[in-house]
Design a protein that fits this description.
By secondary structure, the protein is α/β, with parallel strands linked by helices. The protein is built from 13 helices and 18 strands. The structure holds iron/sulfur cluster.
Length: about 425
């Protein structure tokens, strides 16, 4: 049986696409192999979001033919969409498949014919959201959280971002199909379903993200739903209260804030006139649901960001109290307006700013974790022994000295934070069986 190794670089959507493809190919006679050395074919879903990711992707592709000289390589994803034919010159690369042609991969591999470039215009895909219907259960996939890709692409044009040109305009998967996928994932044994996409807030099959959530919540079962990253433009009071109050929706928000300074947001071509409303909403979310997780993405060092503007973001972060954050240093992307802007910031200065932001986030996280001490959390066990798992409010939790079956619920209380930041908990035994809270 032909062995295929699947690798994904970049966002959660890329990872999910690889799992979906693996499920598909395993139902048509291919064996998934873990080690590249043992693979006949290697499929890589790539990323182009920053220049450092691009160089990493390039290095990784070159390393494959060194470790598996006979393997045939298929490159797909944003790096493929960006560089196309040039990638056919990489050693071992037989196929380059763009983001708009991913649905062809299974047939390309099966036909085993010809080499080549499959790179149609990403906006000519007629609203197609790449997805494969086959689902690997938790035991086959080795994971406990299943992601449903509800949407792909983006209609916005942030000045620093290359994604819309590589993933195309926003398009949404049909609600009916998503509800079926959701049910089948539950039937396969998943307990946590993550809604993913390039920009899930742009989900627009009638009624948008909120109505899709309502549809899912009509499905009976012992599960919880987690939302992946939301843009400030997607945040509504309804969505915030669903996250804060609906038992089967994780009490965890992740918002791609990028900056809390109106001038910087304006330079990024992101909405800046409603910044006060955003700050108020995030504030209120922290106040009203103090146990909930609130994460964010930030970009430091966007061209034109002065020291004073950065301080504004820092003050905003300290006042809101995020519980974690992903902090990126601005990276020039060829073809984006920001790459040509005056006022480029030095790498050293970007480094200083990202360190200061990291410290501010670490401070608010410390306060948040101390507030949670002793409070009950519902953990989905990802690793049975020693017991490790994830809570609804997005904490990675360890329960020393305990063994639990993988993919089970455990009700536990936070008892401490280890020196390296690990969250330590102990099981609450009188619960009579944990339910998602
Ligand atoms: S919202 Fe902006 S940053 Fe996000 S994918 Fe769209 S263009 Fe890129």
């Amino acid at each position: 049986m032909t062995g295929i190794a699947f690798r994904s670089i970049g966002c959660r959507t890329n990872q999910e696409e690889m799992f979906a493809l693996r499920a598909k190919l395993s139902t048509v006679g291919y064996a998934a192999v873990d080690e590249i050395e043992n693979a006949d074919i290697v499929i890589v879903n790539t990323c182009s979001v920053t220049s450092s990711t691009e160089s990493k992707t390039g290095r990784f592709i070159r390393s494959i033919s060194k470790n598996a000289p006979n393997a045939q390589i298929l490159i797909t994803g944003c790096f493929a969409q960006q560089h196309g034919e040039a990638l056919l010159k990489y050693p071992g690369v037989r196929w380059v498949v763009g983001n708009g042609d991913k649905h062809l991969i299974a047939s390309i591999i099966k036909s085993n014919s010809g080499n080549g470039l499959f790179l149609s215009d990403i906006n000519a895909s007629g609203g197609h959201v790449f997805w494969e219907d086959d689902i690997l259960g938790p035991d086959e996939s080795g994971r406990t959280r299943f992601s449903v890709k509800i949407q792909e692409g983006c209609d916005f044009k942030c000045a620093y971002c290359i994604v819309p040109s590589l993933r195309g305009r926003s398009r949404s998967a049909p609600k009916g199909q998503l509800v079926e996928t959701f049910k089948r994932a539950l039937d396969k044994g998943y307990k946590e379903i993550v809604l993913t996409g390039t920009h899930i807030g742009q989900y627009c099959d009638p009624g948008g993200l909120e109505s899709l959530l309502e549809e899912f919540l009509k499905i009976p079962g012992d599960y919880r739903i987690r939302l992946s990253s939301l843009d400030p433009r997607d945040l509504t009071d309804t969505l915030i209260s669903i996250v804060g109050e609906e038992n089967r929706v994780c009490d965890h928000l992740h918002v791609s804030v990028q900056s809390l300074c109106a001038d910087v947001l304006s330079g990024m071509a992101r909405p800046h006139d409603k910044l006060d409303m955003l700050i108020k909403r995030l504030h209120d979310f922290r106040e009203k649901y103090p146990q909930s997780g609130l994460g964010a993405d930030f970009i430091v060092g966007h061209p034109g960001e002065t020291g004073v503007m950065f301080e504004t973001t820092l003050r905003g972060v300290e006042s809101i109290g995020f519980t974690y954050a992903h902090i990126f240093r601005f990276s020039k992307r060829r073809g984006t307006p920001s790459a040509l802007m005056p006022g480029q910031i030095s790498e050293l200065e970007k480094k200083k700013r990202s360190e200061r932001l990291r410290e501010a986030i670490a401070e608010s996280r410390k306060k948040y974790l101390s507030l949670l001490l002793g409070r009950p959390l519902c953990i989905l066990v990802e690793d049975g022994s020693p017991a490790r798992g994830i809570s609804g409010n997005y904490l990675k939790i360890e329960i020393p000295g305990a063994d639990f079956s993988k993919n089970s619920w455990v009700r536990a209380a936070l008892i401490g934070i280890a020196g390296d930041g690990r969250c330590i908990a102990e099981e609450i035994v009188d619960a009579g069986g944990a339910k998602p809270i």
